Amino acid sequence: LKITLLGGGGHAKVIIGMIRALGHEPARILDDNQSNWEKELMGVPISGPIESVTCTKEPVVIAIGNNRVRKKLSELYETEYVTLIHPAAFVDPSSKIEAGSVIFAGAVIQPEAVLGKHVIVNTCASVDHECELSDYTQIAPGAHLGGNVQVFEGAMVGIGASVHQGSIIGAWSTVGGGAFVKGIIEEGITVVGVPAKTRSSI
Ligand SMILES: CC(C)(COP(=O)(O)OP(=O)(O)OC[C@H]1O[C@@H](n2cnc3c(N)ncnc32)[C@H](O)[C@@H]1OP(=O)(O)O)[C@@H](O)C(=O)NCCC(=O)NCCS
């Protein structure tokens, strides 16, 4: 499979590695930073602006870590988005993962987890049984979700954070790196620490 990537930053490098590990070909990168055009990223040509995705017939992956940007691009450009699961990830066959999501090396997705569109489960993160991750969410490297955790649209669980089983992370909220979350995190806030508290209150 030849795959077009949107975005040519560090996150794209990991996706290029994953595409190659899967035996596919990262065909080209589209990036809006004009100074990168005609250059290469890990041997993949950067060939022009993201809007030229409308001319591509290849399947596409949005290789951008920012959750709001993935939402914006996926709504602007309705095309065939691939789901990529690294061969060194474990994904239970009873879980469901929608188009455009990426599961990196070392990640574990347990039974009956449900992942929406354009979700990122980063290096060595784990998502336990029956978790629900809405569209555009992101579980950063080494973060762990217990069973039945619900992560609403666009929320980010930071690097190395842990989330107690049954907890709820509100839409577009951020859990800071290393936090421990238990209970309900409201929409659109940032929490940090052990136990996690809203940042303004620390
Ligand atoms: C929580 C977070 C979003 C805050 O970012 P920010 O708004 O830029 O905040 P700042 O770095 O300015 O820090 C503000 C304060 O919060 C503290 N703080 C920041 N992150 C913290 C964390 N994870 N845990 C505890 N305290 C934290 C800072 O020490 C600082 O405290 P001070 O005001 O007493 O000096 C960020 O630090 C974080 O943890 N991001 C996760 C990143 C991640 O997982 N990336 C993965 C990429 S693949």
Condensed summary:
With 202 residues, the chain is mainly β. The protein has 2 helices and 25 strands. The protein has helices at 10-21, 67-76; strands at residues 2-6, 25-30, 40-41, 44-48, 60-62, 84-85, 90-91, 96-97, 102-103, 108-109, 114-115, 120-121, 126-127, 132-133, 138-139, 144-145, 150-151, 156-157, 162-163, 168-169, 174-175, 180-181, 184-185, 190-192, 197-198.
- Low-pLDDT windows of residues: none
Bound molecules: coenzyme A
Report the mean per-residue pLDDT as an integer: 97
Order of helices and strands: EHEEEEHEEEEEEEEEEEEEEEEEEEE
Count of DSSP H/I helices: 2
User: Over the alpha carbons, how many angstroms does the gyration radius reach?
Assistant: 17 Å
Q: Got a strand count? A: 25
Class from secondary-structure proportions: mainly beta
Q: N- to C-terminal separation? A: 49 Å
Strand content: 25-35%
Provide the spatial order of strands within the biggest beta sheet. 6-9-12-15-18-21-24-25
